[in-house]
Q: What sequence folds into this?
C-alpha cells in the first residue's frame, strides 16, 4: 500500500483534504483514482489507512479508517551529526540513514568541509534535504520523521550534544565494545567530512566526551560512513 506524509492531524472516520505536496503526488504523479486505498501519516507516530473519496485539480480528499500504531523507530534514539557533502551524495547519506532508523540529523561545518551555504541557498537546500528524509520515511515505513537541522560549526555544536553516548568515527581507532552501546539510552554519531577531521577537532571532541571508534582498517567515504556505521551499531544491539 502506498504511503504519503502530511503533517496535519488525522482522526478516525474523518474526511480530510490532503496538503499540496501529497495531493500533487497522488493525483498528478501517480494518477491514483477515487476508491483506491493508501496510508497517510503525519510524523507523530502511527499511520492511518485511508480511501480516496475525491480528486480535484488541486486537492485530494481521503476518508481515514483503521489506525496502525506501529512506529518502526529504532531501539535507541540516534542523532546523526555529519558535515555537509557535495551534490547527490548528501541525499544518499540522509536517505539511507533515515531508512536505518536515524532519529534526527545535525548538519555541520568543519575545517575541511567543502560545502558552505547561507541565506536563501541554505533555506532551499534544507527544504530539499527534509523532503529527502520524508520520502525515505514514506518508502521504509517509519512513521516518525527525523528533522534535518540547519548547519552549525562543529566547535559550536560539540558543547550542546547531550546524549548519554557520544561517538565519533575516525579511521585507526579501536572497535566499539558491545557493552558500551547496551548501556546507552540515547546516542549521537558524529562522522567526518571528505579529508577527515583535523587533529584539533578530534581533541575538541574528546574534551566534550566523545568516544572515538572505527569499524575496521578501511577509510569510508563521507556519505558511506553514517550508513555503514548505523547498520553495524544496530547489529550490536
A:
Amino acid at each position: 500500500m502506498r504511503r504519503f506524509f502530511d503533517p496535519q492531524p488525522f482522526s478516525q472516520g474523518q474526511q480530510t483534504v490532503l496538503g499540496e505536496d501529497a495531493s500533487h503526488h497522488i493525483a498528478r504523479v501517480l494518477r491514483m483514482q477515487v476508491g483506491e486505498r493508501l496510508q497517510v501519516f503525519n510524523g507523530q507516530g502511527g499511520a492511518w489507512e485511508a480511501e480516496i473519496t475525491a480528486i480535484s485539480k488541486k486537492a485530494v480528499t481521503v476518508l481515514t479508517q483503521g489506525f496502525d500504531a506501529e512506529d518502526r523507530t529504532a531501539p535507541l534514539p540516534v542523532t546523526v551529526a555529519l558535515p555537509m557533502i557535495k551534490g547527490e551524495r548528501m541525499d544518499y547519506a540522509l536517505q539511507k540513514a533515515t531508512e536505518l532508523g536515524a532519529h534526527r540529523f545535525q548538519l555541520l561545518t568543519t575545517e575541511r568541509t567543502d560545502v558552505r551555504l547561507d541565506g536563501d541557498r541554505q533555506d532551499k537546500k534544507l527544504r530539499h534535504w527534509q523532503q529527502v528524509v520524508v520520502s525515505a520515511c514514506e518508502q521504509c515505513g517509519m512513521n516518525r520523521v527525523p528533522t534535518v537541522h540547519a548547519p552549525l560549526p562543529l566547535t559550536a555544536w560539540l558543547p550542546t550534544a547531550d546524549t548519554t553516548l557520544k561517538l565519533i568515527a575516525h579511521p585507526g581507532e579501536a572497535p566499539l565494545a558491545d557493552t558500551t552501546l547496551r548501556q546507552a539510552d540515547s546516542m549521537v554519531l558524529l562522522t567526518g567530512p571528505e579529508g577527515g577531521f583535523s587533529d584539533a577537532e578530534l581533541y575538541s571532541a574528546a574534551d566534550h566526551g566523545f568516544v572515538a571508534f572505527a569499524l575496521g582498517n578501511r577509510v569510508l567515504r563521507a556519505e558511506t560512513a553514517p550508513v555503514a556505521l548505523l547498520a553495524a551499531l544496530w547489529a550490536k544491539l
About this structure: The chain has seven helices and eleven strands.
